[in-house]
Write a structure and sequence with these properties.
By secondary structure, the chain is mainly α. It has 31 helices and six strands. Helix 7 packs antiparallel against helix 8 and helix 11 packs parallel to helix 13.
């Protein structure tokens, strides 16, 4: 009897603390559970009476004062959280009793972000409208309380599902979204119809809050492991996107789901959805089969890493994230699956690119990156399959068989597709031709005999590939080498590289490239064209210099006033033949000194040596019998003004010679 009295006293004390809301929210669950257990041991106890004692009319009047249109007092947030927690725990602990609808309406009212109040002023008919903002903590407790009530009432759960989904997407506070997420996952365990919103739950794996992302990934992993939600292929791509997250714990959770949980339902899941993941991550819907499930703009924003127009930094980041996903998938594939994937990429995807059915350059670039990666290397796949056998002889035979299969696959399936794709890309003038040539170069290095067999019967195709490969290598070398115009000039103090100093080996190799000569070697190209034109026209005895769009400046002038001897072959009168003079005047510096410079041994074999035509030599030095006095004009190759001076001199001498010949013909007539 004494023990029963003590238990009754303890129950009264606990009940009074609960009814007067003196218990903190974190301890309310323990108080109500203890009170329920003690009340069950008392004689004549009734859960219904205890339930009504806690959720009494006084409690309702106190709680509803928050929504009073005439009240001026503001209930503190701490007290509101105690009200909400008490209602939720009473509904869970006394599951046989149903919470009245008036309390449910109070809880639903606190879900809103604000409460409107109307107060009528004394002695006046006008009204004053006020608005109270509901804090994030109160709203978070309200959603948890509503979720507990939904667990006890299926009808209420059906009516509240859309509210949860809407606020899960639109709520600004992370704690509110986190509590809604936990509530919806609990409802998925209790009821079967809530799993149709699993895609909305999966969106929270890309939430801005790290806490929400962690809880979303963990709860979805538990639901999938215990089969509380149906299998949907879209969940596979959602977890794939999470692999590129910056949080390591979240990445490990996604890897656990992809490696251990999902393969239980789909043994070859990673291999079967590998190609489709390329289109999903690039947000490409060009293919008739892959990536055709409906997605909202929010899902595309969260889980796809497409190419963004006019944002190179974002494109490089998205490309790096896609490669992280591809690397993980390839690391989980067996050698047999890699070989099959290699064939499917060529037969299904690259073939459609060659036929013009697909045009996404980002997808094509990712495919080339996958085929060229170290994880996709077929030689490694063959070696790994051969090492699986314990017997060395059997391993060697198996390795040879796999090697022959690979060679046949490259010869029959890969190379013809690449040739077709090359022609298609060239016809469309696509920027992916360079990536194709890089991939073809890797194939030719790994399988040289198969490439030779393909190209040996088609000389035109072999020439095209050789030319394209050579041009591609020259472009890459050109991008790697600094051009002479980009080299720093020497300042007045002598710091930096000298502009007139000797060129480095890298610079000289750059100038020797045909593409480099076309872009930066204008001086060398001008000299070579001048020499070749001079050779073509030397037989006619005149040369008018290189034709340019800009007229050459007047640099040199020459005059010949010395008469010839009557014999026509001797030197002028009163003049030593060995000291023949010509009056050369220059408008720019000492250009005449450059022309008088004798031809050195190095210039005789270089491109800088320019020989004058025969007619010009006759006009300068006399008849052909005195050819030992003929000279060559030497121009240094590094000075473009000297080349222009030499060309101008030859042009003027040629025109003067033609004028003399016309005068001679006129006299003869």
């Amino acid at each position: 009897l004494c023990l029963e009295e003590e238990r009754g006293t303890l129950a009264d004390n606990i009940g009074s603390k609960i009814v007067n809301f003196e218990v903190p929210p974190s301890l309310i669950h323990g108080y109500i559970a203890t009170l329920s257990q003690i009340n069950a041991t008392l004689p004549g106890s009734d859960d219904k009476a205890l339930f009504n004692q806690i959720l009494s009319n006084d409690f309702y009047q106190t709680f509803s004062h928050v929504f009073s249109t005439t009240g001026t007092d503001i209930v503190p947030d701490q007290m509101l959280m105690r009200y909400l927690t008490t209602i939720g725990e009473v509904g869970v602990c006394f599951s046989k009793c149903s919470v009245p609808d008036k309390f449910v309406a109070l809880v639903q009212g606190l879900i809103a972000s604000s409460i409107a109040k109307v107060r009528t002023q004394d002695g006046s008919t006008s009204s004053v409208y006020s608005k109270r903002e509901i804090s994030a903590s109160v709203r978070a407790h309200a959603f948890v309380t509503l979720g507990k009530l939904c667990l006890m009432n299926e009808r209420l759960s059906r009516n509240s599902e859309k509210i949860f989904v809407r606020e899960l997407q639109k709520a600004q506070d992370a704690e509110v979204r986190n509590n809604i997420l936990i509530t919806m996952c609990d409802l998925c365990v209790r009821y079967s119809g809530v799993d149709r919103y699993v895609t909305r739950i999966a969106e929270r794996m890309r939430d801005n809050s790290l806490l929400v992302r962690r809880n979303a990934a963990t709860l979805l992993a538990q639901l999938l492991a215990e089969d509380f939600i149906k299998w949907d292929p879209i969940l596979f791509f959602r977890f794939l996107s999470v692999l590129a997250d910056s949080e390591n714990q979240l990445v490990r959770t996604a890897e656990h789901v992809l490696m251990n949980i999902l393969p239980r339902k789909q043994p070859h899941l990673l291999f079967n959805h590998f190609i489709e993941s390329i289109f999903v991550l690039n947000n490409s819907k060009e293919h008739s089969v892959y990536n055709q499930f409906p997605q909202s703009d929010t899902e595309i924003k969260y889980f796809a890493y497409p190419v963004v127009k006019d944002d190179e930094a974002k494109n490089r980041l998205n490309q790096a994230k896609r490669h992280i996903v591809y690397k993980f998938l390839l690391s989980q594939l067996t050698a047999e699956h890699k070989l099959k994937l290699h064939g499917r990429l060529h037969a299904e995807i690259l073939t459609e690119f060659a036929e013009g059915k697909l045009h996404s350059e980002s997808v094509l670039q990712d495919i080339f990156a996958i085929l060229s990666s170290q994880e996709m290397k077929l030689d490694k796949a063959a070696a790994s399959s051969g090492d699986a056998d314990s017997d060395d002889t059997a391993s060697h035979v198996s390795s040879q068989m796999v090697s022959e299969i690979l060679k046949r696959h490259i010869r029959d399936n890969v190379l013809p597709v690449l040739v077709h794709l090359k022609k298609s890309l060239e016809r469309r003038k696509s920027s992916m031709s360079g990536s194709l040539l890089d991939y073809f170069h890797r194939i030719s290095v790994q399988y040289p005999n198969e490439v030779k067999d393909l190209l040996k019967n088609d000389r035109q195709l072999r020439g095209e590939f050789e030319f394209d490969m050579r041009r591609r290598q020259q472009q890459q070398a050109r991008m790697a080498v600094v051009t002479p115009r980009q080299q720093p000039r020497a300042d007045k103090n002598g710091s930096g590289a000298s502009a007139k100093g000797p060129r480095s080996a890298a610079t000289m190799s750059h100038l020797k490239s045909p593409l480099a000569r076309g872009a930066g070697g204008a001086a060398t190209g001008a000299l070579s064209s001048l020499t070749s034109t001079s050779k073509k026209r030397r037989r006619s005895g005149f040369y008018e210099g290189p034709k340019s769009s800009t007229p050459a400046p007047r640099v040199l002038q020459t005059e010949f006033k010395s008469p010839r001897s009557p014999s026509g072959g001797g030197a002028p009168k009163d003049q030593n033949p060995n000291t023949k003079k010509s009056s050369l005047t220059s408008n720019q510096g000492n250009a005449s000194d450059l022309v008088r410079t004798p031809l050195s041994a190095s210039n005789r074999s270089g491109v800088g040596a320019i020989q004058t035509p025969v007619s010009v030599q006759k006009a300068l030095f006399g008849t052909e019998e005195r050819h030992h006095q003929r000279r060559r004009l030497s121009v240094p190759t590094g000075d473009s003004s000297s080349e222009l001076a030499a060309a101008t001199l030859e042009s003027r001498l040629t025109r003067r010679n033609k004028k003399k010949r016309r005068s001679a013909h006129a006299l003869m007539r």
